[in-house]
């Protein structure tokens, strides 16, 4: 038997169903893409194909599957973000109106809650993200940063900050790799390696999700 | 005691029905309706993750789905504002 004895019987019985559901969903999504002429619809249907990929990976039902789902999600997110930006900038190029005319205008409501609530929620999300650490913590903290930036709709972000964020992300990546190496080079320092990896990944993922907010800010700056 | 398989098969049915609804469902000419329909397979996948105890994957998936919906809605709104024929 190819499947080891330690795998629960339940997982083995569900595996063919998971694979078939994944393949059927993928086919439905790809068929939909094949006869769509609208670019935006194709972009939305890409989401369905991503879902099919996740089901096939999840069917393995081990820690490895979980570890593979996380990068898959981030790649899907980055892909959709990049393609939507390309679609928007292509339409801006096509249209006859000027770029300034097409930039989104921010609404000005004079409400107290819009000033205080974003800070409060962002602080809670970032604190909880740091507590979680690792990949999930990075996603939660990044969500907090994104929420803050989007709700403030601030304009005029200095470019130095944007560059600095990329630098911090790079240094965090080095921490992650050093922590990973430490597992093999000095297994005695496993706790240090674990913490280095966890917080390196936290800063890396958080700064990546926060970049979506930065992108919007850059756009406002062009006004 | 609840049978674990119930969650798995409910998830599978939701994923297949939701993806059909996203491709040829009623009113999918409107990209907004299409984007909202993608939430149905997302709930299905969440149930499948729940069956397999993929806690971290489930949490990250929920966060990623929220951000993806945000990005898609932003793209739709921006394109509508430009008067693109969607």
Provide structural commentary.
The complex is a heterodimer of chains A (223) and B (86). With 223 residues, chain A is mostly helical. Chain A folds into two domains: 1-102, Helix Hairpins; 108-223, no CATH class. Helix content of chain A is 81%, strand content 0%. Chain A is built from eight helices and no strands. The radius of gyration of chain A is 22 Å and the shape is globular. Chain B has one domain. Chain B has helices spanning 4-24, 31-37, 39-51, 55-81. In chain B, helix 1 (4-24) runs antiparallel to helix 3 and helix 3 (39-51) runs antiparallel to helix 4 (55-81). Classes of the chains: A mainly alpha (223), B mainly alpha (86). Chains A and B meet through helix 1, helix 2, helix 3, helix 6 and helix 8 of A and helix 1, helix 2, helix 3 and helix 4 of B.
Provide a compact summary of the structure.
With 223 residues, chain A is mainly α. Chain A has helices at residues 9-34, 39-58, 63-94, 99-102, 112-132, 134-152, 159-185, 190-221.
């Amino acid at each position: 038997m190819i499947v080891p004895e330690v795998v629960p019987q339940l997982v083995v019985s569900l595996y063919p169903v998971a694979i078939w559901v994944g393949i059927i969903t993928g086919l439905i999504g790809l068929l939909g893409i094949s006869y769509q002429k609208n670019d935006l619809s194709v972009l939305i249907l890409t989401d369905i194909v991503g879902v099919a990929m996740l089901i096939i990976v999840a069917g393995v039902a081990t820690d490895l599957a979980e570890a593979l789902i996380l990068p898959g999600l981030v790649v899907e997110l980055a892909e959709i973000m990049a393609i939507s930006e390309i679609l928007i900038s292509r339409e801006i190029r096509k249209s006859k109106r000027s770029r300034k005319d097409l930039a989104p205008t921010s609404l000005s409501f004079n409400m107290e809650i819009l000033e205080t609530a974003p800070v409060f929620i962002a602080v809670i999300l970032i604190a909880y993200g740091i507590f979680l650490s690792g990949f999930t913590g990075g996603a939660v903290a990044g969500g907090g940063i994104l929420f803050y930036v989007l709700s403030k709709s601030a304009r005029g972000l200095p470019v130095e900050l944007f560059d600095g964020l990329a630098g911090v992300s790079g240094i965090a990546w080095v921490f992650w790799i050093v922590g990973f190496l430490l597992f093999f080079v000095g297994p005695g320092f496993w706790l240090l390696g674990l913490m280095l990896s966890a917080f390196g990944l936290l800063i890396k993922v958080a700064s990546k999700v926060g970049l979506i907010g930065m992108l919007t800010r850059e756009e406002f700056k062009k006004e | 005691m609840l049978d674990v398989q119930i969650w798995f098969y409910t998830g599978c049915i939701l994923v297949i029905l939701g993806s059909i609804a996203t491709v040829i469902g009623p009113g999918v000419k409107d990209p907004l309706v299409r984007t909202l329909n993608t939430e149905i397979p997302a709930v299905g996948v969440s149930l499948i993750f729940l069956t397999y105890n993929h806690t971290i994957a489930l949490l990250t998936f929920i966060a990623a789905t929220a951000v993806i919906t945000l990005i898609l809605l932003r793209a739709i709104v921006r394109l509508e504002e430009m008067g693109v024929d969607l």
